[in-house]
Specification:
Radius of gyration: 16 Å
Oligomer: single chain
Order of helices and strands: H
Helix content: 40-55%
Strand content: under 5%
Number of helices: 1
Distance between the termini: 40 Å
């Protein structure tokens, strides 16, 4: 018997926007203009 698969769903738009705003605020706090990953 196979285990149940976990369905991966995208984050809600509000969560993505909040995460983006926190990241931009942290970058501004540290004087960063660009984030490279």
């Amino acid at each position: 018997m196979r285990p149940m698969a976990t369905e991966v769903l995208p984050d809600a738009p509000a969560l993505r926007l909040a995460r983006r705003q926190r990241a931009l605020a942290a970058m501004d706090e540290h004087g960063l203009d660009m984030l490279v990953s």
